[in-house]
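EI: anyone free to look at a 389-residue chain?
SC: sure, send it
EI:
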Amino acid sequence: MMNLLNYVDRWVPSAVKALFKKDLDLTDAETSWPLTAFVLVYMVASPIFGALAETRNRRVLIAVGVAAWSLATAAAGLATGFWSLLLARALVGIGEAAYATLAPSLLADFFPPERRNRVFTVFYVAIPVGSALGFAVGGALGAAYGWRNAFYAVGLPGLAIAALALLMKDPVRGAFDDAPPRQVSFVAALGLLARNPIYVVTVAGYTLVTFATGGIGDWFAEFLHRVRGMELEKATLAIGASAIVGGLLGTSLGGVVADRLVGVTRQPYLAVSGLFMVPATALVCLALFVFEDPTTIIASIIAAQVFVWAYNAPVNALIVNSVEPSLRARAFGISILCIHALGDAISPPIIGTLSDSTGNLKGALVIVPITLGLGALVWLVGWRRLREV
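SC: here you go
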């Protein structure tokens, strides 16, 4: 439930982008900077919470994080201009950093390595579902009641979820691992992660794919509306539907196939992530540059989403399994920093700036399939060249 709400709150601004753009008199680039502000704070705060997680009570940190991001989401509804909206969305990043960094390491301590991919499959199904609800519910609430009420409606219920977080258990760190966790300084942890080729390749591909998905997530509804002539509400609903259908099928399929390939091929988690990204790249190209009928475009995006989301559980399970217990929270913290600093923190404003300067949103979106393809290449090289975990 927490991970679901995490992604609902994250994508509501993209669903009501056109509404607050008009009301607050913003440019295309300015409508994307609130998302970037969130991501920038999120990525900087994540390594900090990763370090805290190694010694502090993770349950309490998660509860505080959920409460903080919920209040900040609701606060965006009070924005009076660009800077107040930017501040509210930036504060969301602090709360989400506490949760997103700690939750995977907490789950890893509940289950042995051979079960983690399946557990993460269930956990990360909340990403497409939450993203879809963020678009669909946010767009519907914005159209019916205004964009301010959309922020209030999705933000405030999180306070109840934060209270429930205090009832969770904080398991023994490294309970299912061969050796107990050891104390490792932050600098030493960075060195160990940088010298871990499986971790580096996994995060490099993850960063490229996140760049692409961040751009398409923030701008594709606008593409359908502005370039293909769909009504904005229908466009946001279509993107939400494609995310929930493709995301559910893709996350589930990727997790199942990755487990089936264990013992069949080397690095099965990287194999699934890289191979599935190839047809995803081709389908995104068709949706953006070949097909013109909105129905055909939506069908292509749904199929693309299935292939894109297949990496979700395998990649995160690989991050957990490729590092020792004492590094897990920090491994996720550094991963979050990388995928956002070089990924979806910069892709939406880059696309928005290109669109503003050229007057061609369709052309600006060409960077999406390029980075998807590069992510596939990195993972495929890792599949063929890296040793087993």
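EI: Residues 113-145 form the longest helix (33 residues).
SC: 👍
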